[in-house]
Amino acid sequence: MSHSKTAIIIGAGVAGLASAIRLSAQGFQVIVYEKNEYPGGKISEFKVKGYQFDAGPSLFTQPENIEELFTLAGEPIENYFHYQSLPISFKYFYEDGTVINAYTNNLVFAEELENKTGEKKERILSYLESSKKLYQNIAGLFLNNSLHQIKTLFSPGVYKAIKTLRWKHLFKSMHDLNESHFKQKHTIQLFNRFATYNGSNPYQAPGMLSLIPHLELNQGTFYPKGGMISISKALYQLALKKGVQFYFSTPVERIIQNENCANGVVVAGKNIFSDIVVSNMDVYFTYQRLLLDHSKASEVLKQERSSSALIFYWGINRSFPELELHNIFFTTNYQEEFKSLFKTKKVYEDPTVYINITGKIEPGLQAPLGKENWFVMVNAPANIGQDWLKFKEQYKAAIIEKLNRILGVDISPMIEVEEVLDPVTIENRTDSYRGSLYGTSSNSKMAAFLRHPNFSKKIKNLYFVGGSVHPGGGIPLCLKSAAITSKIVAEDFKGK
Ligand SMILES: Cc1cc2nc3c(=O)[nH]c(=O)nc-3n(C[C@H](O)[C@H](O)[C@H](O)COP(=O)(O)OP(=O)(O)OC[C@H]3O[C@@H](n4cnc5c(N)ncnc54)[C@H](O)[C@@H]3O)c2cc1C
Questions:
Q1: Residue-range definition of the domain harbouring residue 456
Q2: pTM score of the predicted model
């Protein structure tokens, strides 16, 4: 393909990689500058003493977003990427001894919930059905299109979306919606958890977020062979195959503007020109550091950031048959936990603990045989300069106490390897403001409309992708942001 147009992408996160593939398929010659020495941004891995850990994301949903990129590029996905679906998405543990398997077969899951909690299975099935309807009618419009183009608001999907919406989706919190639908507290808590999918608070986020369970429980939960790192490895290989040029350990210093038009970047003090610039860097830092527009940068912060996390990567010297790939150990007081995450921004003494063990799916590969690689995560408040050294000790003690209580065994002597990731490191590693995992949160009714658009209204030929802009964070939405942005670029460059 002959290239007449050039694109520079700032950042090789999953959204930057997807944008590179899409723009190259649209005939752009693409260059990606990445400040780190590896592609993938928040998706990364490390190995220590025979244990392999995915450092960032661990839950994989909507593989079709990845398949679409291979189809678009005309490359067989099986040469690059393999994944499998999971019969159980999560295993939930409660302090009172209740254990629930979230089967991805709806009927089996509904029966499991009825048996374990007394919640009528019809209630579960009707909730999942409305989650599906909501997703199909709303998300189709909001997640696949720019919300900041007039034509989206006049498209045929709008009528369908408005018809689906109810008072409870817009004006009730997700928790209130769940509380009015379900009778049992364990079920309410389980469905409240889905607000954390994009680092939000179920007591504030709108009922609209009840569409999220559709992803995991109706569409399914998947595991990429080799762990989550296989996602960024595959997309990087695909981009290379399509002729995308990558420069690692190469931070972009400025975006060059001429008469309100972006036409390149400054790298190592040199001007590199291009027809368009796509920033996959956090939108706040893009304005603050690359455009030196501090007032626009603070305007972006009007929308609250998502929560952060504290992660302990533990090599465990025995195996736990009672655990699955994804496990949640719930707090007894979810509301208080969210208060400390978003209001007091302190450690909560009884945090909800998530454990991911990829060695369950690939025994002997991700951890030495008979041992397990535990990715142990608690949601943590945004970094506002707290004493993280102290927080780490407090969280570790709380986690170990909780796991010992619920698993009925002292796990401390089993930890033979430990690494830790805190919000400060998350912030520094990928320039993610305050260490937010998912960019912006959905803690307000207007969240979807407050997110930054995928293009600049002021600077021509400047575009944005990734978790800090529309439609939001998490791998599926980041991949969708790349699709939306490339569509806008295609329209802007029609006939050029
Ligand atoms: C601990 C953790 C757990 C998570 N769990 C999940 C999960 O289970 N499932 C899920 O779907 N999502 C999860 N997420 C969220 C998901 O990882 C992110 O939403 C997604 O990976 C973000 O991709 P991105 O492309 O927007 O940005 P990033 O991955 O942040 O990429 C941005 C890139 O830009 C680069 N960059 C920044 N500044 C510059 C510059 N000046 N010049 C050049 N390059 C620059 C950065 O180095 C980085 O590589 C998790 C995130 C974390 C951290």
A1: 5-43+227-304+443-492
A2: 0.96
